[in-house]
Task: inverse folding
């Protein structure tokens, strides 16, 4: 009996040891070894930070040339004081890794198509395959080559990488970020290629929008006249970013006109998602002639998908020749948006088509060669090795052509389509954006700003500028191909090189403006320039509402103060509703409305068009609009076929001006509906949906509740770490906070000659550790429209009074 008891106890003990020390998969989700994860001395408990973390820490760092002081203020923003650029970038890499290591590495894994090494599901494998087939690593390697050819950026990348790796090398298991323990893996050494990948990841977010396949299918289905009606190149609404009629005094590049051959059959495939159409931004600069201080003021708020850890990492960089502050991208050196002693700058996305798709003609089923200019050219095969955690390695063969990688073929998303489609993307060009930000951080005036932008290729951006000397400016900068009329709108024939990009617009002929007579410059992703600009341009869409509201307020306001600009950044006025709701209400048969529909009608009738958090009218309007779009454009919901809806602005215009348009006829009903019929149907659907929502949530239909915004963890399965946010706004509003997207950083800078002052806020915190009080300590301030004054330190000694914690980096003794 004793032997049996001992044997049972031994088996239970061994089983428990095995259970506690091995990873498991439950419901398709990985579970870390419970013993390691729950270990009170080394597991996740060690990620809970003490409330009192004030201290001065001395560290000996390899590769430093001189001591470096780092002061952390009350928000845990680091202020780095170095004696040379090499030490400055090394310290930036080290300090950023201290707070954001997991985020940095995970984002570069995502960019490179390597998530399957961490999490293994079919969806993740398909995501990784897509990243490889889009040529993300290919583009990053070309960018890194350009960076390493320039001595300044070669040093930046090398020292920043060195700083990150010094931090990684000093980590023990108990110091690992929480996510490594949860997913049971360890960080790998950082490389300069990862910095380049991070920049390509941002280019993918901002510069990969296209509708070539959708437009090609629409042309085949509906004809040219209807395509021009539904998808006009320019919608003729609002002010362009730069309005300079007849003022373009240069000789543009001319290229030969050719008839653009396009596929004659419908393209049936499951298209990969491109840049999110709700991703946008606002920025503006106001001349001292319009401000109360007499000094220029600059504002910027980039709109992105909000996540935790936060997208941005606030930091100050100080060394001889540079004293800049703002936000960096974790994993990339320098400051991306910010200010220094002399200037300030911010960015919005420039809406330009920088993607083309080419239909490839193969020589046979083996697809070894493709036709180009009458010759059969061998494809270059790249075998992508995708490591899958707990499973065999997956191999995917990607063929490269003159145009770029063949993304869609018989083995990926085009299984029933025997064509191949090659991807031409501006992010595959050699480029060195790191040099732009190195120079901007040190710029003293408008001339320096212009020089810094000359090397910036992607993602195409609207760079706003202001200086203490009184200048304001806007420049739309990127590497823009010279296009023939309508080139780039449709899929092109890949058998002729003449259909490709023949030249690029010279920097000096890009769209720009300095000190305009109206006293301000602004951009909000709208049309870039007036029709007299001599180059053809197009985009998937142009913003139609935020830009007009911003320009209206700036035009009407004088003696502008900082609080006025903060108020404008948080403005909830819904111009789209103001222009569409009266027409929609007029189409309702209000006499016969009853119950919930009558209540909704009354609320909407008296609504002030502000999407404030407490507004019920905003909820009813947005629900109505969301019900209306799919009813109108049901003809475009064809299974397995790439098609897209017209823009919001054009849809409203068609409702008002062409109520009998055939697209207003709802498919699947015997009646022939008009715009009014569809508007009424959508109203009923919306009110029914809201009533159901009210019952399920036992709540009133206030906009903040109905919108249900949240900021999720960067890792989608970790919804438990998401934070709900109660705000107003929406994506067509200056305060562009929708359910998941919004202002990722708000900054206001007053460029006074007595000293630059700045205020900012962002949805999260400096730390990437969920156990830190600095993980989301700025979120309440951000959601309520409040700002913190940015502590712009001049030297480490003067900074002592404002210091929460200090690091002293010392070089190794030789």
Result:
């Amino acid at each position: 009996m004793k032997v049996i008891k001992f044997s049972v106890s031994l088996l239970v003990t061994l089983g428990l040891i095995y259970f506690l020390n091995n990873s498991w998969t439950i419901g398709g989700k990985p579970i870390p070894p419970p013993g390691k994860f729950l270990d009170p001395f080394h597991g996740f408990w060690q990620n809970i930070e003490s409330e009192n973390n004030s201290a001065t820490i001395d560290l000996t760092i390899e590769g430093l040339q001189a001591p470096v002081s780092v002061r952390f203020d009350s928000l845990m923003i680091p202020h780095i004081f170095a004696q040379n650029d090499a030490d400055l970038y090394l310290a930036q890499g080290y300090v950023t890794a201290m707070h954001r290591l997991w985020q940095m590495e995970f984002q570069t894994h995502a960019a490179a198509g390597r998530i399957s090494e961490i999490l293994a599901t079919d969806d993740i494998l398909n995501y990784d395959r897509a990243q490889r087939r889009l040529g993300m690593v290919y583009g990053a390697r070309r960018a890194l080559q350009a960076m390493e050819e320039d001595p300044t950026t070669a040093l930046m990348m090398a020292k920043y990488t060195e700083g990150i790796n010094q931090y990684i090398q000093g980590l023990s298991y108990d110091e690992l970020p929480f996510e490594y323990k949860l997913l049971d893996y360890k960080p790998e050494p950082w490389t300069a290629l990862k910095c380049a990948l991070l920049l390509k990841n941002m280019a993918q977010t901002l510069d990969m929008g296209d509708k070539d396949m959708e437009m090609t299918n629409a042309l085949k289905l509906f004809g040219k006249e209807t395509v021009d009606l539904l998808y006009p190149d320019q919608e003729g609404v609002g002010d362009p970013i730069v309005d300079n009629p007849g003022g373009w005094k240069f000789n543009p590049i001319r290229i030969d006109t050719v008839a653009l051959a396009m596929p004659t059959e419908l393209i049936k495939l499951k298209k990969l998602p491109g840049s999110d159409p709700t991703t946008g931004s606002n920025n503006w600069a106001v001349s001292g002639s319009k401000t109360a201080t007499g000094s220029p003021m600059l504002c910027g708020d980039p709109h992105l998908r909000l996540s935790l850890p936060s997208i941005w990492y606030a930091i100050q960089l100080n060394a001889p020749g540079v004293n800049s502050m703002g936000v960096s991208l974790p994993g990339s050196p320098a400051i991306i948006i910010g200010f220094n002693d002399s200037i300030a700058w911010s960015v919005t996305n420039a809406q330009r088509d920088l993607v083309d798709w080419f239909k490839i003609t193969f020589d046979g089923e083996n697809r070894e060669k493709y036709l180009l200019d009458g010759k059969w050219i061998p494809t270059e095969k790249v075998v992508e090795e995708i490591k899958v955690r707990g499973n065999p390695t997956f191999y995917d063969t990607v063929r490269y052509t003159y145009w770029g990688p063949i993304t869609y073929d018989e083995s990926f998303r085009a299984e029933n389509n025997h064509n191949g489609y090659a991807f031409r993307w501006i992010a595959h060009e050699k480029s060195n954006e790191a040099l732009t930000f190195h120079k901007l951080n040190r710029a003293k005036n408008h001339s320096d700003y212009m020089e810094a932008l000359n090397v910036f290729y992607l993602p195409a951006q609207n760079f706003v500028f202001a200086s203490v000397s009184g200048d304001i400016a806007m420049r739309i900068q990127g590497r823009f191909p010279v296009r023939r009329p309508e080139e780039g709108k449709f899929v092109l024939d890949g058998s002729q090189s003449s259909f490709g990009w023949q030249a690029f617009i010279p920097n000096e002929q890009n769209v720009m403006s300095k000190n305009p007579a109206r006293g301000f410059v602004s951009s909000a992703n709208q049309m870039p320039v007036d029709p007299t600009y001599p180059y053809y341009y197009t985009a998937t869409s142009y913003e139609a509402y935020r830009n007009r509201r911003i320009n209206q307020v700036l035009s009407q306001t004088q003696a502008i103060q900082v609080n006025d600009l903060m108020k404008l950044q948080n403005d909830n006025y819904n111009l789209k509703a103001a222009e569409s709701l009266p027409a929609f209400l007029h189409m309702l048969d209000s006499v016969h409305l009853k119950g919930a529909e009558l209540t909704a009608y009354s609320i909407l009738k008296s609504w002030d068009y502000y999407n404030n958090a407490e507004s019920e009218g905003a909820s009813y309007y947005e629900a109505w609009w969301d019900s209306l779009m799919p009813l109108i454009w049901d003809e475009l919901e064809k299974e397995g076929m790439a098609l897209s809806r017209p823009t919001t602005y054009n849809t409203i215009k068609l409702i008002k001006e062409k109520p009998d348009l055939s697209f207003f006829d709802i498919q699947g009903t015997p009646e022939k509906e008009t715009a009014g019929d569809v508007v009424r149907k959508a109203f009923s659907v919306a009110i029914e949906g809201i009533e159901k929502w009210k019952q399920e949530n036992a709540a009133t239909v206030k906009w903040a509740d109905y919108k249900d915004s949240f900021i999720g963890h960067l890792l989608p399965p970790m919804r438990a770490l998401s934070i709900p946010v109660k705000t107003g706004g929406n994506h067509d509003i200056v305060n562009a906070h929708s359910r998941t997207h919004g202002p990722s950083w708000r900054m206001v800078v007053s460029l006074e000659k007595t000293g630059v002052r700045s205020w900012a806020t962002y949805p999260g915190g400096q730390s990437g550790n969920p156990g830190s009080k600095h993980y989301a300590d700025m979120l309440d301030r951000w959601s309520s429209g409040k700002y913190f004054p940015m502590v712009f330190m001049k030297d480490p000694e003067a900074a002592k009074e404002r210091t929460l914690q200090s690091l002293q980096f010392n070089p190794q003794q030789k």
Summary: The first strand starts at residue 24 and ends at 26.
